Amino acid sequence: MVNSSIIPAFSFLSLLPLLLLFLEVSSSFTPTDHHLINCGSSAPSTIDADHRKFFGDESSLPHSVRLSASQTIPLTDLEFKLSGDVSPLYNSVRIFRKPSKYTFRVKEKGAHLVRLHFHRFDSSNFDLSDAQFHVLADGYLLLNEFSGLTMKSLEIREYILWVDSDKLELSFKPLKKFNFGFVNAIEVISAPRDLILDSAQFVDSNGVIKIDGISRSAFETMFRVNVGGAKVTPFNDSLWRTWTTDDGYLESDHGSKEAHFGGKIKYQLGGASREVAPDNVYNSARVVSASSSGVAKEYLTWGFPIVDGYKYLVRTHFCDIASPVLGSLYFNVYVNGDMSIENLDLSTITNSLASPYYADFVVNGENGVITVSIGHSKGSSSSGVDALLNGIEVFKMSNSMNSLDGMVSAKSILRRCRGGNSSFLVLVVAAVGLLVAASVVLRKRLMAASDSVAWSPLPVDISEVSLKSTYL
Ligand SMILES: *[C@@H]1O[C@H](CO)[C@@H](O)[C@H](O)[C@H]1NC(C)=O
């Protein structure tokens, strides 16, 4: 299970603390591709709560990003109040009434983090809860029939996508002719090479086997949890991730305690890097001590609700911040109740306390939940700390249709958007014709009635309608 070839590297490095220090300092991560876009904003740039600079796409889109679209509408939230809780990114939005796309230049092929920010605000012209749209990235379907009505008022979706060319295309397609899509902000950031490894351990009731080639699937981040610690905001994460507390996910708790560590986390070559998880994740943990142990096979279990029918990548983060000496902590790790690491011995892997390590597992999504458990092993000592865990991440993996949202392919959605249903089109055109006639009559009457009548929402609809009728 544990890769033995990394052990000599660790002992070699432990003889050279100065070199290690040098490696740590010089390894601060700067992404090659780093596109931050504040959609619908005419301000040249906006600084968010984490001191990041997002460029407005209405006037000052950088050369490395292109927006190709007909009928997009930048919209500003006039009611927007700058409270501490709402990022200034969310007072503007871009509306897509036709299929539209952003193209991001990619200098470094490989995994990229893509974050989409959706904030459903109230606007007099558009009810964002009426939005219904698809979002595609290159050949992957990220969101299928995404609806403003069912989304939370603020949703930030995070994906990890492998980009094999010099650009990444992010497309927004309204579900039907009269629907629209929207987005408030977009982040495209090249990921460090060690963020997603190509192999992992596939776990089910038959046991554990190594699988390869996983880095080319698309991933959606479902859960990212700092076990036993406080919420970590993007400000304290070198990839601007958010880590929530584990409070809502802890299922069974046989007298666990939180552990906190004030010393330095020893990131080492071959172990987890600071980009895999920041100090604030590794300097807190939940531990079970032997004195509180019962007879249960599993001491501590976390549960995460999931949609069945996909594979999931489960990443478990460990850093022994609780043992008094090396060689005193041994425990088992279970995913979905199946033994995933027997007798995990962090001391032998890292040859040091407070040195981070992580293990990746792939499981089939079944029964609507993924569980992670840690428990007593045959090597567990009868005193001291018995088991420990610092963090958990759960990523959904794209299915055989290259989709993260249903058994639909990006191709079939593109085809649908292009072709359309012709008999439906005839009906729509007829209805539009009637509307035009009605609105012309109405307008004449209104104008005759009073010159001072405000008719602000009408012009948009009229131009849209007359466009269609000339098409006829
Ligand atoms: C960043 O982490 C430090 C140390 O844990 C903490 O004191 C600080 O409040 C955090 N800052 C933010 C913005 O979360």
Automatic annotation (TrEMBL):
Query: What are the UniProt keywords, alphabetically?
Result: ATP-binding, Glycoprotein, Kinase, Membrane, Nucleotide-binding, Serine/threonine-protein kinase, Signal, Transferase, Transmembrane, Transmembrane helix
Q: What residue intervals traverse the membrane?
A: 424-442
**Record Gene3D superfamilies:** Galactose-binding lectin
GO MF annotations in UniProt: ATP binding; protein serine/threonine kinase activity; transmembrane receptor protein tyrosine kinase activity
Q: Name one GO cellular component term.
A: membrane
What main location does UniProt list? membrane
Q: Where is the signal peptide?
A: 1-28
Ranges for domain Malectin-like come to 37-397
InterPro entries linked: ANXUR1/2-like (IPR045272), Malectin-like_Carb-bd_dom (IPR024788)
Protein's membrane topology: Single-pass type I membrane protein
Where is the protein localized? Membrane
Top-rank taxon of the source lineage equals: Eukaryota
What is the protein name stated in its UniProt record?
A: Probable receptor-like protein kinase At5g24010
Naturally occurring in which organism (per UniProt): Spinacia oleracea
Native organism taxonomy:
Eukaryota, Viridiplantae, Streptophyta, Embryophyta, Tracheophyta
Q: Which gene name does the record give?
A: LOC110789873
